[in-house]
Amino acid sequence: MGEDLLMAEVAIGLVEHATEAAAGRHAEQVVHFFDLMRDRLLRYLLGLRLPVEDAEEIVQEVFLALFEHLRRERKCRNARAWVFRVAHNLALKRRGRDRRNRQNLSSRAGDAASAAPDPEQQFLRSQRGMRFSAIWRALPEQERRCLALRAEGLTYREIAEVLDVSLGTVAASLGRSLARFARADGR
Amino acid sequence: MLSEDSHVPDEELLLASDGELSPERAAEVSAHLERCWSCRARRQEIGQAAIDFVRHYRESRDPLLPPVAGPRARLTAHLAQLAALPAPWRTRWAEFFEKRQVAIGMACALVLAAGLWYGLPGIPSNSGIRPVPLSLPDPNLTPGAIASISREQVCRSDLPRNRPVSSSLRHEVFAEYGIPAAEPKAYEVDYLISPALGGADDIRNLWPQSYSSAVWNARVKDALEDRLRDLVCEGKLDLVTAQHDIAANWIVAYMNYFHTDRPLEMER
């Protein structure tokens, strides 16, 4: 709850400072927002099966773009949803590009280029994570994305905005996937 | 309206827990839950599944997150440079219009429309990120490259601090970084690992560093190079570590070797 309040304050602060001439203050606010959001964005991007280096690169791009956006537009209605949406879109774009590159490489070299290291593989090796990972992997990608965004504290409306789907789709996805986790626990 | 015999679907129990139901529906569900043990138990099960999920989700990813210091320093440096640039023209025009009456805005719009009609150049869309003066090189383009050189050679007093970069190599670097022909004088094509630290004359070791950067500029990096060379020659740091640190992220290296989070006054 406290953290949510803090997030709201930061979002408001971003809007207010965007109206000031001092761009240095914008930069400070963006860095402060980076401190709050960086780990959340990274976790989400890792779930999209990006290597950690690529995920980190995308997070940098997101916050530079946020700074530019604030200077240009002078406002950001919901900075939290905005950074997740931009990160999500950049990640899908990069994933598509990497997939094409891998296909090109494999067709040239005659063997498949090694896929990006999957961060979930590491967790799979731990006993504790095995059941979780099995359910997680069985979920459709859309449900995984909804769950991850909800775990990062986004509201249903924000999730719908990030993924460009309806509120009903978000609610149905979360309901279905949590029911699976509950069933798997014998509940 | 929920009857006493019907139960609340899982999805609605979740929506109720997350505060996502309309007030009217939330009141109905709440009233039903007061009466229905079965639905209360189910709500608790779903809530516990959410708690377990969040715990596992965090445990599976948090160990993979690299330390924040390097990325934070990189972002701070880039933002400091962006902030030193003039605001994008759209913002300045927007301020102009907002501070004045709509009529003035309309008049300007008419003038602009007339100008466009007579073939003035189009107005840039200004979407996306503008090119920025660079404090840090692109690691894909400039990972750093070293010459075959020993510590003794590095510490010879006659070793030049920097070597001039040939004109053709400079042009290659500007082209690689997409810097327009009019811009090169604003940049120093700098060695990532300086020759004084054994850096090679190689495009992988060269990048356009901005003179105009207010904070992390070429002069600050020169100070770091001097410090690293001194440490190497005093036997307090091995040459390979110095080369690695300056190539990995020279701003973080500066912070570490000068024990500061911003350039010291004497280096400005």
What would your notes on this structure say?
- The complex is a heterodimer of chains A (187) and B (268).
- Helices cover 80% and strands 0% of the residues of chain A.
- Chain A is mostly helical and 187 residues long.
- Chain A folds into 2 domains: 1-117, Rna Polymerase Sigma Factor, Chain: A; 119-187, Arc Repressor Mutant, subunit A, CATH 1.10.10.
- The radius of gyration of chain B is 30 Å and the shape is elongated.
- The model of chain B is unreliable at 108-133 (pLDDT under 50).
- Chain B has 3 domains: 10-63, no CATH class; 69-117, no CATH class; 151-267, no CATH class.
- Chain B is mainly α.
- Chain B has helices spanning 10-17, 23-35, 37-61, 69-84, 89-99, 102-117, 151-154, 167-176, 218-233, 239-248, 250-258; strands spanning 187-191, 206-210.
Task: Draw up the topology in text.
The complex is a heterodimer of chains A (187) and B (268).
Chain A: H1 2-18, H2 23-47, H3 52-73, H4 79-109, H5 119-124, H6 127-138, H7 141-151, H8 156-163, H9 167-184
Chain B: H1 10-17, H2 23-35, H3 37-61, H4 69-84, H5 89-99, H6 102-117, H7 151-154, H8 167-176, E1 187-191, E2 206-210, H9 218-233, H10 239-248, H11 250-258
Helix pairs in contact in B: 1-3, 2-3, 9-11, 10-11
